[in-house]
């Protein structure tokens, strides 16, 4: 198994998902969704799009 998605409810009653690796490290966290079904749809979107997603490495911002 390559990890798992965990759905939880936050303090505002919104649903969030976390993608957790086998070693317990959190790899990604979804934004707050109004319904559990919307959260599941968010997980499915990540599953569909992530395998082909390119890495975009932006330059650091100037912090002056």
From TrEMBL:
Q: Name one Pfam family in it.
A: DUF1508
Q: Which PANTHER family match?
A: PTHR40606, UPF0339 PROTEIN YEGP
**Protein name in UniProt:** DUF1508 domain-containing protein
Signal sequence extent: none
The DUF1508 domain covers 10-57
What organism is listed for this UniProt entry?
A: Nonomuraea maritima
Which Gene3D superfamilies does the UniProt entry name for this protein? 2.30.29.80
Per its UniProt entry, which superkingdom is the organism in? Bacteria
